[in-house]
């Protein structure tokens, strides 16, 4: 029987306790130093500050400019102490401990000094504590109390900064310099934590003040709105507008960001069941208290008026929606599915899981498909992003997952970033990477675009291999060729850890002169010498780590490239310890999890193949039904089958295939062909406009569950408010299964996780109680690894020996397309997330309210295009129109856009060319032509009409008018 997890019965784990600030960062030295503070003996690592040592002994020394996520600065002097045998009263934050030191933290002399310091601060500070938004959460106020300040002898009439103007330009936080004590914590947070260097202290002495950029408004500066400075500020100078408007929160719950694959932990700080602010959680193992603009501030979508709150049904997509109760909606959906299966067969329906949903929800959807639909027609949006990672890493290393923790990058000497843009797509990890780069690690970027990581402040000498889109495999083979032909391989690692026959075959293949950089130069466009230098840098580094993203996977040779990366890492022995590895940067929050949970048509949870009778037998015993032994349809196969009239119904949870999948017109045709489309989502997304049943979804704030980040780290998602529509997503799937006649019952998602643990060898040790105890767990977690496995493949590979794979370069069809002389590549931007359904409903719109086409000045000039002109982008799949932005971030011949706004139609032009092994679409290479135009494309005009119509139908608009408009839209 399953163990029922009752959150009320579970003792509060340590990570719920208030976070303590130890004043200065921890030191890791193995040499220990013993000293005495106020008569208390304490032993700490060498290099620890006296301030931190005191805090560790539970002795609180007053402080203002110090914080344990920043290096000590020593400006406020509040933390002064007396040290036996030393002159003066040194600042404890900048004084390292010494053996035998005797420290006094409290006496009359120190008290007087501290009162003096506070008096000076307060004499230049507004005395509006009672009405200040930080009242009750202000370190200046706390310190005034702690040092016993009762009066200010200097008066308040002298020169001061009380009239300084507030900067309200940032939509999420305000900057009120009248409250600033110039402690520089914000400046240091921006430098040390975020790595952006947007802030400075301008002027000297009394004139000194904090300035963003060149004394600009925050929104005009380099600021990326990560919130680190707001977090660091001990006063209300930098303050969240939500707190100013709503007041201080009164309780908090630790949960996980629902945006990207970094998986940052946050404290949702609440008033009742209303979120006041999201504060990055220091105990978060992935983010250690840092955040980006999305997780920190862009949570307002959860209560946006567009949220769907009532289930709805309709017979056909030209009819208005009819609001119904949950029971009726579920019964309607189940009856439709059953009728369709009765008429067209068991294989005529399927389901799509989402990487935005929890592990438990995803597990249930694939279970619903396999046990209630009785086929394997389940797939996930990871199909269109990281499916080649699954295939490529499983084939070579034996496990479909990244090998390291994020923290491992701090041990890397050379960081190779291939086809990824971490500062936009994985911002918190990018900040950590930049910290390592500032410490001296080398950087090699393999990407057609000059990504922002190449502009890391205080880092020089980055190598940029600006290859032509679509030539990754030629490049990775050339790098490996240099390693092997110059004798830079790690022979010991290869002999001990890799399959000898496979290695010999690969060695012969890769040494072929056709892979020499000099011969590959014509393909990639990268000078041979640059390739040789990069290969040597990586191979000769004590620790070389590779990070890659969708610029690797979303190609016709995505799987080959992933295997090529694994080959290179194995050949150089860069696997199986801290600081090395092969690390896919997963785009959405739960890409890893949705793959782990058996979303793919050929694999049950834990990547167990449906064709394996022993595997099926275990699942059949647990689920009580026979499981089909044939893999089901992948998403593109579902579309093709729908267009062919063979696939008739689809259940889509939390995914917007109409906007995110390639070749939009084909996808729309497939969706229109369905007799029943059931969409479960928090908004009327683009897919929902083609639906017959709308089941309102719940946001991450409204449910319990887990997400698994790019490090394989399972983090808890905790419900902080009731679901707006009354049900968590997992409950809806359960209801649908029951209505279809397949019994499902769970009282809490913890029971779903218990079931997963019982069926998935890599999850046997995972439970909610264990997650509460440990904070997070990196799978595998089982008897052998009860606390999980931070670094994979230390002793051996799950398949025993590493398998080198032959990765011949095959040019993409798109590369040789003469009608369309430019190559379009797509990507993301920091402020928006994926299809934008969430971020477009937040103030993040202030940074990116439309997708634009970036094109090189030379390509623009050739076409007479100026910055801001409308341009038509045409591929063999279709045409769309965007505004042009002239930029030299890409080489000539390459154009770039994002896909965050549905009306942009970025996927109208992407084609159905896809990865040979997994069908992952080739989003990164589309041959296009660009020309100046004066009106939206035909597709965009249709889109606008259809969009207006569907919004009208959602509001219950007139059926006939709606129908007429739809006919118009179809023409
Ligand atoms: S919000 Fe972040 S990037 Fe902007 S100034 Fe503050 S720390 Fe720097
Ligand atoms: S804005 Fe806040 S953190 Fe920055 S210097 Fe002023 S008081 Fe310190
Ligand atoms: S979007 Fe990613 S980096 Fe930003 S807070 Fe969320 S998980 Fe962290
Ligand atoms: S806290 Fe040490 S000088 Fe400010």
What's the total count of β strands?
34
**Rg over alpha carbons:** 29 Å
**Spans of 5+ residues with little confidence (pLDDT < 50)?**
9-16
Strand content: 15-25%
List the bound ligands: iron/sulfur cluster, FE2/S2 (inorganic) cluster
Strand arrangement within the widest β-sheet reads: 13-12-25-24-23-14-15
> What level of helicity do the residues show?
25-40%
| Count of helix runs | 31
Mean pLDDT: 91
How many strands, what sense, and barrel or not for the largest sheet? Answer: 7 strands, mixed
- Basic shape: globular
Please identify the structural class as seen in this structure: alpha/beta
End-to-end Cα distance: 58 Å
Features:
7-stranded mixed β-sheet; binds iron/sulfur cluster; 971 residues; globular; 6-stranded mixed β-sheet; binds FE2/S2 (inorganic) cluster; 31 helices; alpha/beta
């Amino acid at each position: 029987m399953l163990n029922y997890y009752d959150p009320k019965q579970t003792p509060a784990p340590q990570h719920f306790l208030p976070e303590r600030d130890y004043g200065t960062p921890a030191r890791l030295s193995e040499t220990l130093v013993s000293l005495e503070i106020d008569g208390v003996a304490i032993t700490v690592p060498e290099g620890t500050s006296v301030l931190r040592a005191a805090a560790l002994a539970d002795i609180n020394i007053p402080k203002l400019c110090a914080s344990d996520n920043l290096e000590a600065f020593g400006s406020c002097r509040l933390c002064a102490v007396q040290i036996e045998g030393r002159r003066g009263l040194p600042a404890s934050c900048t004084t390292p401990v010494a053996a035998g030191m005797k420290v006094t933290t409290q006496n009359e002399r120190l008290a007087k000094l501290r009162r003096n310091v506070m008096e000076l601060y307060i004499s230049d500070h507004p005395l509006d504590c009672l009405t200040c938004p930080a009242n009750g959460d202000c370190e200046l106020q706390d310190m005034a109390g702690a040092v016993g300040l009762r009066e200010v002898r200097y008066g308040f009439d002298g020169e001061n900064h009380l009239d300084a103007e507030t900067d309200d330009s940032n939509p999420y936080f305000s900057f009120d310099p009248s409250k600033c004590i110039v402690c520089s914590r914000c400046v240091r947070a921006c430098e040390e934590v975020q790595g952006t260097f947007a802030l400075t202290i301008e002027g000297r002495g009394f004139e000194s003040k904090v300035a963003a950029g060149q004394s600009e408004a925050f929104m005009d500066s380099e600021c990326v709105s990560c919130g680190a400075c707001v977090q660091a500020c001990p006063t209300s100078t930098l303050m969240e507008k939500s707190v100013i408007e709503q007041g201080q929160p009164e309780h908090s719950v630790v949960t996980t960001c629902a945006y990207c694959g970094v998986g940052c932990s946050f404290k949702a700080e609440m008033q009742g069941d209303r979120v006041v602010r999201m504060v990055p959680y220091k105990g978060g193992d992935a983010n250690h208290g840092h955040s980006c603009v999305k997780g920190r501030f862009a949570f307002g979508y959860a209560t946006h008026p567009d949220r769907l709150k009532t289930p709805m049904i309709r017979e056909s997509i030209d009819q208005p929606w009819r609001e119904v109760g949950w029971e009726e909606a579920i019964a309607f959906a189940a009856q439709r599915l059953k009728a369709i299966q009765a008429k067209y067969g068991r294989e005529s329906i399927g389901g799509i899981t989402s990487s935005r949903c929890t592990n438990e929800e995803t597990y249930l959807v694939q279970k619903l498909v396999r046990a209630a639909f009785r086929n394997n027609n389940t797939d996930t949006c990871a199909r269109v992003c990281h499916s080649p990672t699954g295939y490529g890493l499983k084939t070579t290393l034996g496990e479909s997952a990244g090998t390291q923790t994020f923290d491992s990058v701090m041990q890397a000497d050379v960081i190779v970033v291939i086809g990824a843009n971490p500062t936009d797509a994985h911002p918190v990890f990018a900040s950590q990477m930049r910290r390592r780069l500032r410490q001296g690690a080398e950087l090699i970027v393999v990407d057609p675009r000059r990504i922002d990581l190449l502009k890391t402040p205080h880092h020089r000498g980055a190598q940029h291999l600006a290859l032509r889109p679509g030539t990754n495999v030629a490049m990775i083979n050339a790098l490996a060729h240099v390693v092997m032909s110059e004798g830079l391989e790690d022979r010991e690692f290869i002999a001990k850890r890799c399959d000898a026959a496979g290695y010999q075959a690969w060695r012969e293949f890769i040494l072929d002169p056709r892979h020499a950089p000099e011969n590959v130069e014509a393909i990639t466009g990268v000078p041979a010498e640059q390739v040789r230098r990069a290969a040597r840098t990586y191979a000769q580094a004590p620790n070389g780590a590779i990070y890659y993203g969708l610029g690797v996977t979303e190609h016709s040779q995505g799987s080959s490239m992933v295997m090529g990366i694994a080959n290179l890492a194995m050949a150089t022995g860069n696997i199986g310890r801290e600081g090395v590895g092969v690390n896919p940067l997963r785009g959405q929050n739960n890409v890893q999890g949705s793959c782990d949970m058996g979303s793919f048509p050929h694999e049950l949870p834990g990547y167990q193949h449906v064709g394996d009778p022993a595997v099926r037998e275990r699942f059949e015993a647990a689920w009580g039904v026979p499981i089909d032994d044939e893999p089901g349809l992948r998403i593109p196969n579902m579309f093709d089958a729908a267009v062919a009239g063979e696939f008739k119904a689809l259940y889509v949870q939390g995914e917007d295939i109409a906007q995110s999948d390639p070749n939009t017109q084909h996808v729309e045709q497939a969706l229109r062909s369905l007799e029943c489309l059931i969409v479960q989502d928090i908004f009327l997304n683009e897919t929902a406009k083609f639906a017959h049943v709308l089941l309102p979804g719940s946001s991450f704030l409204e449910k319990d569950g887990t997400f698994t980040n790019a490090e394989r780290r399972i983090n808890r998602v905790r419900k902080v408010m009731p679901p707006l529509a009354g049900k968590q997503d997992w409950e809806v799937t359960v209801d649908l299964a029951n209505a279809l006649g397949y019994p499902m019952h769970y009282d809490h998602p913890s029971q779903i996780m218990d079931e997963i643990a019982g069926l998935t060898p890599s999850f046997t040790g995972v439970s909610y109680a264990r997650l509460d105890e440990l904070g997070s767990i990196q799978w595998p977690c089982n008897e052998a690894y009860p606390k999980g496995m931070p670094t994979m493949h230390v002793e051996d590979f799950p398949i025993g020996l590493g398998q080198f794979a032959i990765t011949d370069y095959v040019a993409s069809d798109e590369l040789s397309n003469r009608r369309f002389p430019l190559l379009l590549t797509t990507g993301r931007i920091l402020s928006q997330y994926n299809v934008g359904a969430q971020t477009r409903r937040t103030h993040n719109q202030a940074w990116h309210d439309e997708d634009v086409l970036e094109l090189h000045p030379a390509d623009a000039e050739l076409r007479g295009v100026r910055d801001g002109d409308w341009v038509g982008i045409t591929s063999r799949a279709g045409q769309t129109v965007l505004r042009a932005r002239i930029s030299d971030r890409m080489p000539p011949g390459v154009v770039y856009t994002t896909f965050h706004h549905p009306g942009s139609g970025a996927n109208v032009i992407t084609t159905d060319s896809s990865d040979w092994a997994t069908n992952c679409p080739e989003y990164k290479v589309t041959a296009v032509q660009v020309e100046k135009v004066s009106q939206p494309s035909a597709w965009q005009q249709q889109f606008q009409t259809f969009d207006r119509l569907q919004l009208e139908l959602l509001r219950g608009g007139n059926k006939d008018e709606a129908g007429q408009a739809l006919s118009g839209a179809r023409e």
